[in-house]
Specification:
Largest sheet: 2 strands, antiparallel
Radius of gyration: 13 Å
Number of domains: 1
CATH architecture: Orthogonal Bundle
Number of strands: 2
Shape: globular
Distance between the termini: 28 Å
Bound molecules: zinc ion
Oligomer: single chain
Order of helices and strands: HEEHH
Strand order of the largest sheet: 1-2
Number of helices: 3
CATH topology: DNA Binding (I), subunit A
Strand content: 5-15%
Amino acid sequence: MSLTATEKEELLYELWLEQDRKCYYCGIKIQLKHCELDHKVPVSRGGSDTKKNMVAACHNCNKEKGNKTVAEYRRYLQEAYGEHPKF
Ligand SMILES: [Zn+2]
């Protein structure tokens, strides 16, 4: 079962508010119109289209995370940049 465009918009809005209008990954403040829905576990990897599997992310993070899971993305950032992500 996949979400309609309207449902996705509502979900994104809720997540964005809950995350204090920040990107889930890098923590920068983002405008809603620059916000993207990201699946913690990508749908292609068996993740579900439900709110608990989704976060609001900025375009850069969403793009860089790509097809990784959250755990993989965290590891990737540590290895690539020596960062210790807060998410
Ligand atoms: Zn970000």
